[in-house]
Design a protein that fits this description.
alpha/beta; single chain; 7 strands; 219 residues; globular
Length: 219
Protein backbone atom coordinates (compact mmCIF):
# COMPACT_ATOMS: atom_id res chain seq x y z
CA UNK A 1 0.00 0.00 0.00
CA UNK A 2 1.11 3.54 -0.75
CA UNK A 3 1.48 6.40 1.70
CA UNK A 4 -0.67 9.55 1.54
CA UNK A 5 -0.76 13.02 3.09
CA UNK A 6 -3.80 14.40 4.93
CA UNK A 7 -4.34 18.10 5.60
CA UNK A 8 -6.77 19.61 8.05
CA UNK A 9 -8.45 22.66 6.50
CA UNK A 10 -8.98 25.57 8.89
CA UNK A 11 -5.75 27.17 10.20
CA UNK A 12 -3.73 24.43 8.52
CA UNK A 13 -4.42 24.80 4.83
CA UNK A 14 -6.36 28.07 5.24
CA UNK A 15 -5.66 30.92 7.63
CA UNK A 16 -9.31 31.21 8.75
CA UNK A 17 -12.42 29.09 9.15
CA UNK A 18 -13.72 28.36 5.67
CA UNK A 19 -17.36 28.08 6.73
CA UNK A 20 -17.25 31.33 8.70
CA UNK A 21 -15.46 33.07 5.83
CA UNK A 22 -18.44 32.11 3.67
CA UNK A 23 -20.98 33.50 6.15
CA UNK A 24 -21.46 36.82 4.25
CA UNK A 25 -22.14 34.83 1.06
CA UNK A 26 -24.66 32.71 2.98
CA UNK A 27 -26.30 35.91 4.19
CA UNK A 28 -26.48 37.33 0.66
CA UNK A 29 -28.12 34.09 -0.53
CA UNK A 30 -30.71 34.31 2.23
CA UNK A 31 -29.39 31.25 4.04
CA UNK A 32 -28.74 33.06 7.30
CA UNK A 33 -30.16 36.14 9.01
CA UNK A 34 -28.30 39.28 9.99
CA UNK A 35 -28.32 38.03 13.59
CA UNK A 36 -26.80 34.72 12.54
CA UNK A 37 -24.17 36.60 10.54
CA UNK A 38 -23.25 38.55 13.67
CA UNK A 39 -23.08 35.28 15.60
CA UNK A 40 -20.78 33.88 12.91
CA UNK A 41 -18.53 36.93 13.34
CA UNK A 42 -18.40 36.24 17.09
CA UNK A 43 -17.48 32.62 16.39
CA UNK A 44 -14.74 33.81 14.05
CA UNK A 45 -13.29 35.89 16.89
CA UNK A 46 -13.35 32.84 19.17
CA UNK A 47 -11.82 30.74 16.41
CA UNK A 48 -8.94 33.17 15.98
CA UNK A 49 -8.38 33.37 19.73
CA UNK A 50 -8.97 29.64 20.11
CA UNK A 51 -11.22 30.29 23.05
CA UNK A 52 -13.91 27.76 22.14
CA UNK A 53 -13.88 24.24 23.55
CA UNK A 54 -13.94 21.15 21.34
CA UNK A 55 -17.53 20.37 22.34
CA UNK A 56 -18.63 23.94 21.65
CA UNK A 57 -17.02 23.95 18.21
CA UNK A 58 -18.54 20.56 17.38
CA UNK A 59 -21.98 21.69 18.53
CA UNK A 60 -21.73 24.90 16.50
CA UNK A 61 -20.69 23.00 13.38
CA UNK A 62 -23.57 20.52 13.65
CA UNK A 63 -26.08 23.25 14.53
CA UNK A 64 -24.80 25.23 11.56
CA UNK A 65 -26.15 22.54 9.23
CA UNK A 66 -29.67 23.54 10.24
CA UNK A 67 -29.41 26.72 8.15
CA UNK A 68 -29.08 24.52 5.05
CA UNK A 69 -32.54 23.00 5.56
CA UNK A 70 -34.49 23.28 2.32
CA UNK A 71 -31.45 24.43 0.33
CA UNK A 72 -30.31 22.37 -2.66
CA UNK A 73 -26.76 20.98 -2.86
CA UNK A 74 -26.44 22.39 -6.38
CA UNK A 75 -27.27 25.87 -5.06
CA UNK A 76 -24.59 25.56 -2.39
CA UNK A 77 -22.05 24.36 -4.95
CA UNK A 78 -22.72 27.42 -7.10
CA UNK A 79 -22.42 29.71 -4.05
CA UNK A 80 -19.06 28.20 -3.05
CA UNK A 81 -17.76 28.26 -6.63
CA UNK A 82 -18.60 31.96 -6.93
CA UNK A 83 -16.83 32.70 -3.63
CA UNK A 84 -13.74 30.59 -4.38
CA UNK A 85 -11.53 33.18 -6.06
CA UNK A 86 -12.68 36.17 -4.00
CA UNK A 87 -13.08 34.61 -0.53
CA UNK A 88 -11.41 31.22 -0.16
CA UNK A 89 -8.35 31.16 -2.40
CA UNK A 90 -6.79 34.25 -0.75
CA UNK A 91 -6.88 32.36 2.58
CA UNK A 92 -4.60 29.55 1.40
CA UNK A 93 -1.17 29.31 3.03
CA UNK A 94 1.71 29.20 0.52
CA UNK A 95 3.60 26.82 2.81
CA UNK A 96 0.79 24.27 2.70
CA UNK A 97 0.87 24.23 -1.11
CA UNK A 98 4.65 23.75 -0.96
CA UNK A 99 4.06 20.65 1.16
CA UNK A 100 1.39 19.41 -1.23
CA UNK A 101 3.90 19.70 -4.10
CA UNK A 102 6.51 17.84 -2.05
CA UNK A 103 4.16 14.93 -1.32
CA UNK A 104 3.07 14.79 -4.95
CA UNK A 105 6.73 14.65 -6.03
CA UNK A 106 7.07 11.55 -3.82
CA UNK A 107 4.04 10.02 -5.52
CA UNK A 108 1.80 10.40 -2.44
CA UNK A 109 -1.88 11.33 -2.92
CA UNK A 110 -3.02 14.39 -0.94
CA UNK A 111 -6.36 14.78 0.85
CA UNK A 112 -8.19 17.51 2.77
CA UNK A 113 -9.86 16.16 5.93
CA UNK A 114 -12.14 18.62 7.73
CA UNK A 115 -15.22 19.02 9.90
CA UNK A 116 -16.45 21.57 7.35
CA UNK A 117 -19.35 20.55 5.09
CA UNK A 118 -18.33 18.02 2.43
CA UNK A 119 -19.43 20.22 -0.48
CA UNK A 120 -17.22 23.08 0.71
CA UNK A 121 -14.23 20.83 1.37
CA UNK A 122 -14.66 19.12 -2.00
CA UNK A 123 -14.84 22.45 -3.85
CA UNK A 124 -11.60 23.62 -2.22
CA UNK A 125 -9.91 20.27 -2.90
CA UNK A 126 -10.95 20.41 -6.56
CA UNK A 127 -9.78 24.01 -6.92
CA UNK A 128 -6.39 23.25 -5.38
CA UNK A 129 -6.02 19.96 -7.27
CA UNK A 130 -6.08 17.63 -4.26
CA UNK A 131 -6.76 13.94 -4.84
CA UNK A 132 -9.69 13.76 -2.45
CA UNK A 133 -11.70 15.39 0.32
CA UNK A 134 -13.40 14.17 3.48
CA UNK A 135 -15.86 16.44 5.28
CA UNK A 136 -19.08 16.52 7.26
CA UNK A 137 -22.00 15.07 5.31
CA UNK A 138 -25.46 16.62 5.62
CA UNK A 139 -28.48 14.46 4.83
CA UNK A 140 -30.32 15.18 1.56
CA UNK A 141 -33.95 14.17 0.99
CA UNK A 142 -36.10 15.01 -2.03
CA UNK A 143 -33.20 16.99 -3.44
CA UNK A 144 -32.75 19.34 -0.46
CA UNK A 145 -30.75 19.35 2.75
CA UNK A 146 -32.58 18.25 5.89
CA UNK A 147 -30.14 19.99 8.24
CA UNK A 148 -29.20 16.69 9.89
CA UNK A 149 -25.63 15.41 9.90
CA UNK A 150 -25.06 11.91 8.55
CA UNK A 151 -21.35 12.13 9.29
CA UNK A 152 -19.93 14.83 11.56
CA UNK A 153 -16.21 14.67 10.89
CA UNK A 154 -14.73 15.52 14.29
CA UNK A 155 -11.96 14.02 16.41
CA UNK A 156 -12.11 10.20 16.34
CA UNK A 157 -14.39 10.26 13.28
CA UNK A 158 -11.53 11.77 11.27
CA UNK A 159 -9.25 8.94 12.32
CA UNK A 160 -11.91 6.35 11.51
CA UNK A 161 -12.29 7.72 7.98
CA UNK A 162 -8.53 7.54 7.42
CA UNK A 163 -8.52 3.91 8.51
CA UNK A 164 -11.20 3.14 5.91
CA UNK A 165 -8.94 4.35 3.09
CA UNK A 166 -6.59 1.96 1.32
CA UNK A 167 -3.28 3.58 2.34
CA UNK A 168 -0.32 2.66 4.49
CA UNK A 169 -1.11 4.96 7.41
CA UNK A 170 2.13 4.16 9.22
CA UNK A 171 4.00 5.66 6.26
CA UNK A 172 1.52 8.52 5.84
CA UNK A 173 1.57 12.13 7.11
CA UNK A 174 -1.15 14.25 8.73
CA UNK A 175 -1.13 17.99 9.37
CA UNK A 176 -3.31 19.86 11.87
CA UNK A 177 -3.34 22.90 14.13
CA UNK A 178 -5.61 21.68 16.93
CA UNK A 179 -5.35 19.33 19.90
CA UNK A 180 -8.92 18.23 19.10
CA UNK A 181 -7.41 16.50 16.05
CA UNK A 182 -5.19 14.29 18.21
CA UNK A 183 -6.88 11.03 17.06
CA UNK A 184 -6.41 12.18 13.44
CA UNK A 185 -2.72 12.88 14.02
CA UNK A 186 -2.21 9.64 15.95
CA UNK A 187 -3.73 7.64 13.09
CA UNK A 188 -0.60 8.14 10.94
CA UNK A 189 3.07 7.44 11.39
CA UNK A 190 4.14 11.02 10.67
CA UNK A 191 1.99 13.59 12.54
CA UNK A 192 2.88 17.27 12.07
CA UNK A 193 1.59 20.23 14.11
CA UNK A 194 0.93 23.34 12.01
CA UNK A 195 0.40 26.71 13.76
CA UNK A 196 -0.53 24.61 16.80
CA UNK A 197 -2.74 25.72 19.65
CA UNK A 198 -1.18 25.68 23.11
CA UNK A 199 -2.30 22.15 23.95
CA UNK A 200 -1.10 20.66 20.67
CA UNK A 201 2.21 22.53 20.93
CA UNK A 202 2.77 20.93 24.33
CA UNK A 203 1.84 17.47 23.03
CA UNK A 204 4.09 17.89 20.00
CA UNK A 205 7.00 18.86 22.24
CA UNK A 206 6.42 15.86 24.51
CA UNK A 207 6.22 13.45 21.58
CA UNK A 208 8.89 15.19 19.50
CA UNK A 209 6.54 15.79 16.58
CA UNK A 210 7.58 18.38 13.99
CA UNK A 211 6.04 21.84 14.45
CA UNK A 212 5.58 24.14 11.45
CA UNK A 213 4.58 27.80 11.40
CA UNK A 214 2.73 29.00 8.32
CA UNK A 215 2.18 32.66 7.49
CA UNK A 216 2.68 33.35 3.78
CA UNK A 217 -0.30 33.89 1.52
CA UNK A 218 -0.30 31.78 -1.63
CA UNK A 219 0.21 33.74 -4.86
Amino acid sequence: MAAAAFFDLDRTLLRRSSALALAPAFRAAGLISRRQLAKAAAWQALFVLRGASHDAVKRAAVDGLVVLRGFRPEELQVLVAEAMERVLRPLVYAESLDLVARHRHRGEPVYIVSATLQEIVQAIADDLDFDGALGTICEVKDGVYTGRALRALHAEEKARCLRELDYDLEASTAYSDSHTDLPFLEAVGHPVAVNPDRALRRIAAERRWPVLEFGRRAA
